[in-house]
Amino acid sequence: MNTYNDYIKEIEERKGQGLHPKPIDGAELLSEIISQIKDSSNPHREDSLKFFIYNTLPGTTSAAGVKAKFLKEIILGESVVEEIIPAFAFEQLSHMKGGPSIEVLLDLALGSDVAIAEEATKVLKTQVFLYEADAERLENAYKAGNAIAKELLESYAQAEFFTKLPEVEEKIEVVTFIAGTGDISTDLLSPGADAHSRSDRELHGQCLFEHNKEMQQELLALKAQHPDKRVMLIAEKGTMGVGSSRMSGVNNVALWTGVSSSPYVPFINIAPVIAGTNGIAPIFLTTVGVTGGIGIDLKNWVQQKDENGNTIVDADGEPVLKQTYSVETGTVLTINTKTKKLYSGDIELKDISTALTPPKMEFIKAGGSYAVVFGKKLQTLSCKILGIDIPQVYAPSKEVSIEGQGLTAVEKIFNKNAVGTTPGKTLHAGSNVRVEVNIVGSQDTTGLMTSQELEMMAATIVSPIVDAGYQSGCHTASVWDDKSKANIPRLMQFMNDFGLITARDPKGQYHAMTDVIHKVLNDITVDDWDIIIGGDSHTRMSKGVAFGADSGTVALALATGEATMPIPESVKVTFKGDMKSFMDFRDVVHATQQQMLKQFGGENVFQGRIIEVHIGTLTADQAFTFTDWTAEMKAKASICISEEETLVESLEIARDRIQIMIDKGMDNEKQMLQGLVDKANNRIQELNSGSKPALKPDADAKYYAEVVIDLDEIAEPMIADPDVNNDDVSKRYTHDTIRPLSYYGGTKQVDLGFIGSCMIHKGDMQILAQMLKNIEAQYGKVEFKAPLVVAPPTYNIVDELKAEGDWEILQKYSGFEFNDNAPKGLARTKYENMLYLERPGCNLCMGNQEKAEPGDTVMATSTRLFQGRVVKDTDGKKGESLLSSTPVVVLSTILGRTPTMEEYEAAVDGIVLTKFKPSQKQLVLA
Question: Tell me: domain 3-127, CATH 1.25.40.310, correct?
Answer without folding.
Answer: yes
